[in-house]
Each structure stands twice: as structure tokens, then as C-alpha cells.
Design goal:
The structure holds two protein chains of two kinds. By secondary structure, chain A is of the alpha+beta class. Chain A is built from five helices and five strands. The chains are: A alpha+beta, B alpha+beta.
């Protein structure tokens, strides 16, 4: 089986003996130990496996690792700059969003891709960008608030959304 | 042995610290595992090792008064959370209770998951919304004992009576002299103080609480948002292999033969074999195991598996057939009478009005987002498991039973859990992983696919209610009758989740009331689903009460309060029972906050529902609009809850919001079509859980009464569906009597 060269979170990794049909998700999880990206459905319905490919949110369960060789892959582990959290991660903590927390890596990655293109999304734009991500605990109300808070922080505005922890 | 083995790895990892930019990675083995810490950051998998919590063996360098608390001289306070965390927030709320009585500054506290240890902790489980009420006293006492020992240590240090000392923010203060010693300063001295008897330590008055009732963020939040929190599925044991397991899609089928030779020749596959199982659905049913060197190899091979099943004793259940039968039964009296109060038949004779209706709700899946999985390593007569289970102690029993081991030979490590909802009260996935590891002779991570998860659930059972009620001339309810049509298991008893209490609301509150039951046999496995029984019967009962109110031409709020009557406990002396005063309190509060009675435009309406479950009194009012094409918009749901004092305000609100939307999600579009014993909906394309675009505003009000605190993981769910359906009636005049709503042509 062939080797793969992947660019993951800014590191060049050569992975030996990869079945070309292997989804990116399982290379990340089983071979690279980057287990922050989650398996939920295997069919691209739930969004738990969302990562960035050249800055766009994609479902890593539905794309082969071979197809993304040479592209820039960012996982939840690579979203923050060292210890400096992404404003979405800070907002998620501020609003105490997670319940079980399993979907939240994927939620944050989808939200980060949204904010990179639409810095001040309205509710409709949030709906469009986030409706591919299921939260079985239904933390949607707080997810929406946290995205607005992060957007405001990114654009340097005063934040007052209420209901924060 | 195993813990020592993991400890070796911790030491190795801590000694490494190299960060490599280019890695050659084949499969994870001990060597790559160590290297990978360079990519993933720190502590990839090591959070699960047993931290010694046995005071007898504790290092003398710390204060460890009991299994819950560890205070080191540097002032760090570690609190151990004993129960599984499934998203209900107990890893934060339970340690908060300890910290309150300990008078610990929350910012000094680090929370860790405890080991499984029945002798130390008692029952450790996540179910029935029991974590708070069952452990309230134990956790408070654990904190109070430690506090008393710290005070005793300080008093001895200062040579003053303990009565002259008080505690605040992780310190003991001598009030007269204003001298102060921190808990860290006192740790070593406190470790030498004799542990006082529980009955000698006093507990705080509620008015002195500093921490309880505040908004405290989840203790794992930072790890969760950075991808560092470890769930069961994230377990990596060095040299482990990956496994899948194929069972008959109709419960009870046995393997006749399978193309094992072909499977074993596939790339990455190490072995494939048949397990006969122990004929216990909650433990190990027959199937084919595949062992591979990656999850993907195991899953790919599973797709090529060709098994012929002997289905002679398998389920042939059919949901459509059950529906036809139930409608026939509904025309008759129930086969058994479980409750008979007053004289329903006489009441009908004297009635000014009689109203009847037939309700149904379907089977549903739990569908936690983390599919079932378990990592097991059976070796040297010991089974060690890393399991996302709600019932780790029962899991020990299940695995011991499956493998023929004694329970002391089974070690279970708790992991964080990607959703429970009741599914993980049952430990079939643990038994499978253990049996596969035993046969394979290596550590294995068993991974179910989403399809496995939905084909082999312990489903929320569907059911049917044929209601009849009567009203007198003044519009007062004079008789209530519920013919409940449900399912029975092989023993002839109602299946799990398919029974109804003989004093279910409003039976004991109506002068003439009758509850009869008819059952149909069922082989499809069922089990507790978030707010078992309540999650379905509340829809039927609370909708029919609204029907009766409308039939009497009366306001639903007033009609419901009249049924509650005078404030009283239904079972005097049982604080876990319905209290009509608490019920009326939440009903009035929800109505007031939602603007009950306000004028609304055509096509818009308010609906009310109350339900009592898990000792929680909860009322909800939904505000909805429905357009001409039956497109439903749920604008807002107002929740009023009385569960006693709130432990963590942020967590409590989150639970209510999540439970309400879960209830709404389920009633809108979820239902399983079962034919020939097989579930047809096996992934989210045919099981449309609610998404963010349809999430309504959910406003939560707590009464915060002085009764003992009770749990919130479940009781806010049941009222959501009937509140929405009653609002749809108010908006449109269309009465919803069958779930899911999509069956009646509604869309969102």
C-alpha cells in the first residue's frame, strides 16, 4: 500500500502503508492519534468529524486521506495558536456550551470556517453554516450565542449577549 | 500488572518531550504512541490511569480524608467525581457540593474522574436523574469531614478551641486574632487528625452557601473545546487492535455460517471468528467478530461480510402490524385493570359530556452521538475495560458473567461519554469487547458503526392510549379512563419502558378513574430512554387533558389547576412524590412568564403542559405558529421547574434547554419503522434529529424551593411535546394524536 504525505496542523507528516480508500477521519484518529476529531455517523450527516481543508469545513469521514494529500488540513487540535485559544473556543467556555461535548470539536470547526469568511454572521448565516452539525444534547441556543460573542470579539466590539457564565 | 504497565508509559512519555516535524507512522504501537505525544500535545491517553485514592496507601505528603478529596501542601485541591459524565453535568455539580461544604475556593479545585470502587463510593451510575438526590448527603458529608479536620489542625496549631475558628475560601481563620492558614499550609497536619464520625460533623445552612446556585462552567470545557477531552472512543492502549462485530439485524438470530476465510484475506484484517454468545441480549448475542489493524480495515471488512442467519427464534416484530392490532384492542376494554377508583361507568351515565380519543407514539432510538464502543484487554485471568458506560458497576457484573470470571477480576475505567440518554445503562458493548479480546488474546477497541448503533439499540418502546373522559354540566372532570396498549416480554410482563404507574397523573386526582392495559408480545429489545415512560405518556395524557378542557369550553390553565386541587402530597411522607402545590406553582409560573391569555394573531397559539417525573415538577408553555402549508415554527418554550435548590445554575439551565429541544426533536420527526424484526432507520439521513435552524428560544425559570434537590437530566423533557401539540391546536384547531408530527403532514 502507498505512503501518504499530509500537511496536518502545520506539520508535514509521511504516513506509511495507507489503504487509499481510508477516510481522512481514520488516518487522523488511528494513525496520527488526533482524536479530537470525532466519528459520529460515517455518512457526512452529523458533522462530528468536521476539519478544515485549505480553510473550508469538510466532513473528514467522507473524504479519503489520499484525496487531500498536499492540502492544508487543520483539526481542532490545531485551531488555537499554542496556548492562545481561538475566540470561538473562549466564547464556548464563556457560555458554558458543552453538555456531553462530543460534537463540539466539529461545531467549533464549522463555526471557525464561517467566521473566517463571514466575520459578522446573522442568525440565518449561522443556520446555514451550522445545520450540518448535530448536537444530540441540543446545545444549539448556546452555540448560537457563542458564535455571536466570538464574532463581536473578533471585530473588536463590546460584548453583551447576556446569559453567560 | 495493568496499572503498573500504564504507569510505565506515563513515565516514559514524561521523559520524552521530543517534538518531531516529520514522523513515519505505520500503526500505533508502543513506539509510535510515545512519539505521537509530540503531535497531539500532552497526555494523549493517560488520563484514565487509576490515581491512588485509597487513604491507606496515599502518599503521606498530602491530605486525603476520603476518596473524594485530596489536598496537597501547594494548595491544590483535587476533587474526585464518582459518577459517569454523560453530558448531564455531574462532573461539575457533584464536586461543587463537596467544595461548598469544604469551603474550598473553586479556583483552587481540579476535578478528576474517580475509579470504580463500590466500597469507597457506593453506587456509581448515571441514570434516573439520581446523581444529585442520591448523593446529596454523601457529598456534603465528605466535604464537611475534611473541613472539620482542617479546622482541628489549625486550632491545634494555634492552640485555640475549634469554636473560635471559621473557614472561608480554602483557609481557616482564627476569628479573634485574624490569623489565617490556608488548606495547603494545613494539609500535612490535617492528614494526622483522626477522621471524625459523620454524625459529629455539622452541615451548612442553605443561607450560608457561597458556591451552590452560582453559574459554574463545566470543568472539562477547556479540554472539550481544544479536542483534548477523552471519550471512550478515544482510548488507545498500546498494541491494541481494532474490532467490529456483526449481529443478526433481527434480534435473536444465530450464525449458521460466514465467509470467514475471505474476510481474513482482506487487507489489514488479522482474524475473524464467530462468537456464540450467552443468549442474553444485554450481554452477548451471537455474531461475527473481525479484528484488524485499523478501524477502517475492520469496518471495510465488515461490509464484505456475508453471514447466513438462523432466524428461527429471532424477532419478527412489525410496527405496522402492532398499530393495526392496537386499534382493534382500543375498541374493547383493556384485558387487565390496574387502577379502579370510584365508579367510572356511573360517572359516564351522569355525564353532561363524554369525550374519547386514541393516541399513539412510535419506537425511537437513543442515537447518542458517540457510537457504542469499548476497549478491552483480557489477559492473565483479568479483564480490564475502558468503557463509556452509564453503569460501570453493573458492567463489571455483566463482563464477569459473560467471561465466567469473578467480579474482582474485572477492572473498569470510566471515560467521558458522548451522550447516554439511557442507552448506556446496558453494557452489551462491554461484553462484546471483552469476549473478542479474550478470544483474540490482544487488547481490542470494539467500534460499532452508526448502523450497528441504530440496529442494536434498546429502543424507547412505542405505545397506544385509548382515552375516555367525562364532564359534568359545570365542565368539571368527573371520570378519567386510560386503556393503555403496550408490549410484553417473554415473561409476560410489560417490556422495559413500556409500563405505566398505577398512580400516574391524573389517576389519583380524579374522583372516578380507571386504568386498564392490553399487551402485545415483543422481541425487539427496549430500555430506558431519557425520562422513561414519561417521555411518551406525557404527550398523550397532557394532550387529552387539553382536549377535555376544550370539550368543556374551559381554559386549559384553569382546568389543570382544578385537577390539582388543594396543595398536598399524593403520598404523604414521600418527598419523591407529586405535590399538587408544587405542581400548581410551576404551572402558574410558566403561564405567567409566557403571557398566558395574551392575544395572538391568527395561526399563532400558546400551549401548556405539566408533567411530574424523577421528583421534578415541571410545566412548559410553547408559543408556535403554523402556516397554511402546515409549516410549524416553535418560537419559544417557557419552562418553570421546581427541583429544589439549584446546584449549578448554568448547568441546570443547559439541561432544561437541551431536554426541551430533545423532546421537540423527537416529537417532530423521529420514529422507527420495524418490519420482520428489523429497524429500517439506521443512520441520520432517515432519522432527522433537530438541527440548529429549528432550535427555539427556551427560557427557564426555577422556583428554587427548599425541598431536597433533585435531578434535572430528564424531567424537563416530557412536557415539551404536549405543550407544542396543545399550541398547535390553539393555533390551528388541528389536534395531533399521533407522533411523530411529520406523520400528520407538518414540516419545520
Amino acid at each position: 500500500m502507498p505512503d501518504l504525505q499530509l500537511d496536518v496542523n502545520g506539520r508535514q507528516l509521511r504516513i506509511i502503508d495507507v489503504d487509499p480508500s481510508t477516510p481522512l477521519l481514520w488516518v487522523l484518529r488511528d494513525q496520527l492519534g488526533l482524536v479530537g476529531t470525532k466519528f459520529g455517523c460515517g455518512g457526512g450527516y452529523c458533522g462530528a468529524c468536521t476539519v478544515h481543508l485549505d480553510g473550508n469545513a469538510v466532513r473528514s469521514c467522507s473524504i479519503t486521506a489520499a484525496a487531500v494529500a498536499g492540502k492544508r488540513i487543520t483539526t481542532i487540535e490545531g485551531l488555537s495558536k499554542g496556548n492562545e485559544l481561538h475566540p470561538l473556543q473562549t466564547a464556548w467556555i464563556e457560555h458554558d456550551v458543552p453538555q456531553c461535548g462530543y460534537c463540539q470539536s466539529g461545531q467549533i470547526m464549522s463555526a471557525a470556517a464561517l467566521l473566517s469568511k463571514t466575520p459578522r454572521p446573522n442568525d440565518g448565516q449561522i443556520d446555514d453554516a451550522m445545520s450540518g452539525n448535530l448536537c444530540r444534547c441540543a446545545t444549539y441556543i448556546r452555540i448560537r450565542k457563542a458564535i455571536h460573542t466570538a464574532a463581536e470579539k473578533l471585530s473588536g466590539e463590546t460584548v453583551n449577549t447576556g446569559g453567560t457564565v | 500488572m495493568n496499572t503498573r504497565y500504564l504507569q510505565d508509559i506515563i513515565n516514559d512519555v514524561e521523559g520524552t518531550g521530543t517534538r518531531l516535524n516529520t514522523l513515519d507512522i505505520r500503526v500505533i504501537n508502543r513506539r509510535t504512541f510515545l512519539k505521537l505525544t509530540g503531535i497531539a500535545g500532552s497526555g494523549l491517553i493517560l488520563g484514565y490511569t487509576l490515581k491512588g485514592i485509597d487513604p491507606v496507601h496515599a502518599a503521606p505528603t498530602e491530605f486525603v480524608p476520603n476518596g473524594f478529596i485530596r489536598i496537597s501542601p501547594d494548595g491544590k485541591i483535587t476533587l474526585y467525581s464518582k459518577n459517569p459524565e454523560i453530558g448531564q453535568g455531574v462532573k461539575t455539580s457533584m464536586p461543587m457540593i463537596i467544595a461548598e461544604e469544604l469551603d474550598a475556593n473553586w479556583s483552587d479545585v481540579t476535578v478528576e474522574q474517580s475509579a470504580i470502587n463500590k466500597a469507597e463510593f457506593g453506587t456509581q451510575s448515571a441514570g434516573g436523574s439520581r446523581s444529585i438526590p442520591s448523593n446529596w448527603d454523601q457529598l456534603r458529608q465528605a466535604g464537611a469531614v475534611a473541613r472539620a479536620m482542617l479546622v482541628a489542625a489549625a486550632a491545634a496549631e494555634w492552640n485555640v478551641p475549634v469554636s473560635e475558628c471559621r473557614t472561608e475560601s480554602s483557609s481557616v481563620i482564627h476569628m479573634a486574632s485574624n490569623r489565617k492558614l490556608s488548606y495547603g499550609d494545613l494539609a500535612l497536619k490535617a492528614a494526622t487528625v483522626t477522621v471524625p464520625a459523620l454524625e459529629t460533623v455539622s452541615l451548612k445552612n442553605r443561607s450560608d452557601y457561597r458556591l451552590l446556585g452560582q453559574r459554574i462552567g463545566g470543568v472539562d470545557n477547556r479540554k472539550l473545546v481544544t479536542g483534548q477531552a477523552l471519550f471512550g472512543i478515544d482510548t488507545i492502549v498500546p498494541d491494541m487492535r481494532y474490532a467490529t462485530y456483526e449481529k443478526c439485524p433481527a434480534t435473536g438470530g444465530r450464525v449458521i455460517q460466514a465467509n470467514l476465510d475471505e474476510i481474513k484475506s482482506l487487507p489489514g484484517v488479522i482474524d475473524a471468528f464467530v462468537l456464540e454468545g450467552n443468549n442474553t441480549v444485554s450481554e452477548l448475542m451471537p455474531g461475527v467478530a473481525i479484528i484488524a489493524n485499523s478501524t477502517w480495515a475492520a469496518m471495510s471488512a465488515k461490509k464484505k461480510l456475508n453471514v447466513s442467519w438462523d432466524e428461527s427464534s429471532a424477532s419478527t416484530d412489525s410496527w405496522s402490524r402492532a398499530g393495526t392490532l392496537a386499534r382493534e384492542f382500543a375498541a374493547q376494554t383493556g384485558k387487565e385493570t390496574l387502577t379502579n377508583i370510584g365508579n367510572v361507568d356511573n360517572a359516564y351515565k351522569d355525564a353532561a359530556k363524554i369525550h374519547e380519543a386514541f393516541y399513539s407514539y412510535p419506537f425511537v432510538s437513543h442515537a447518542p452521538l458517540e457510537p457504542q464502543n469499548c476497549t478491552a484487554w483480557v489477559h492473565d485471568g483479568i479483564a480490564e475495560l475502558w468503557a463509556p458506560t452509564q453503569t460501570p458497576q453493573r458492567g463489571i457484573t455483566n463482563v464477569a458473567n459473560t467471561l465466567g470470571l469473578t467480579e474482582d477480576k474485572v477492572i473498569v475505567h470510566q471515560t467521558r461519554i458522548g451522550g447516554g440518554f439511557g442507552r448506556r445503562l446496558i453494557n452489551d458493548f462491554m461484553c462484546e469487547a471483552a469476549a473478542i479480546s479474550e478470544r483474540a488474546g490482544v487488547p481490542v477497541k470494539l467500534q460499532w458503526t452508526r448502523e450497528d448503533d441504530m440496529l442494536h439499540d434498546f429502543y424507547r418502546v412505542g405505545g397506544f392510549h385509548s382515552f375516555k373522559g367525562s364532564l359534568d354540566k359545570s365542565g368539571k372532570l368527573t371520570a378519567w379512563e386510560d386503556h393503555f396498549i403496550t408490549f410484553s416480554d417473554a415473561s409476560g410482563k410489560p417490556v422495559s419502558g413500556g409500563n405505566m404507574s398505577e398512580d400516574e397523573f391524573p389517576l389519583p386526582l380524579v374522583t372516578n378513574a380507571r386504568f386498564t392495559q392490553t399487551m402485545m408480545p415483543l422481541k425487539v429489545p427496549t430500555g430506558p430512554w431519557r425520562a422513561p415512560r414519561s417521555n411518551s405518556i406525557a404527550f398523550a395524557i397532557q394532550s387529552f387533558i387539553d382536549e377535555l378542557a376544550k370539550s368543556a369550553n374551559r381554559d386549559h390553565l384553569e382546568f389543570l389547576l382544578e385537577i390539582m386541587g388543594d396543595p398536598r402530597w399524593l403520598k404523604p411522607g414521600d418527598a419523591g412524590a407529586l405535590n399538587t402545590g408544587r405542581a400548581a406553582g410551576v404551572i402558574k409560573l410558566a403561564a405567567e412568564k409566557a403571557g398566558w391569555g395574551k392575544s395572538l394573531p391568527t395561526g399563532r397559539g400558546l400551549g401548556l403542559a405539566f408533567h411530574f417525573s424523577h421528583a421534578g415538577h415541571i410545566a412548559e408553555v410553547a408559543e408556535v405558529s403554523v402556516d397554511a402549508s402546515k409549516k410549524l415554527t416553535v418560537h419559544k418554550i417557557t419552562v418553570a421547574a421546581d427541583v429544589g435548590p439549584i446546584i449549578n445554575l448554568s448547568g441546570a439551565e443547559n439541561q432544561c434547554q437541551g431536554a426541551v429541544i430533545d423532546g421537540m426533536s423527537t416529537m417532530l420527526g423521529l420514529g422507527l419503522s420495524i418490519e420482520n424484526g428489523r429497524i429500517q432507520e439506521t443512520n441520520f439521513d432517515r432519522y432527522p434529529l433537530l438541527r440548529i435552524r429549528n432550535a427555539p428560544e427556551v427560557v427557564v425559570h426555577f422556583i428554587d424551593s427548599d425541598y431536597p434537590p433533585t435531578g434535572l437530566g430528564e424531567p424537563a423533557l416530557p412536557p415539551a411535546a404536549p405543550a407544542i401539540c396543545n399550541a398547535i391546536y390553539a393555533a390551528t384547531g388541528i389536534r395531533v394524536r399521533e407522533l411523530p408530527l411529520s406523520k400528520s403532514g407538518f414540516t419545520v
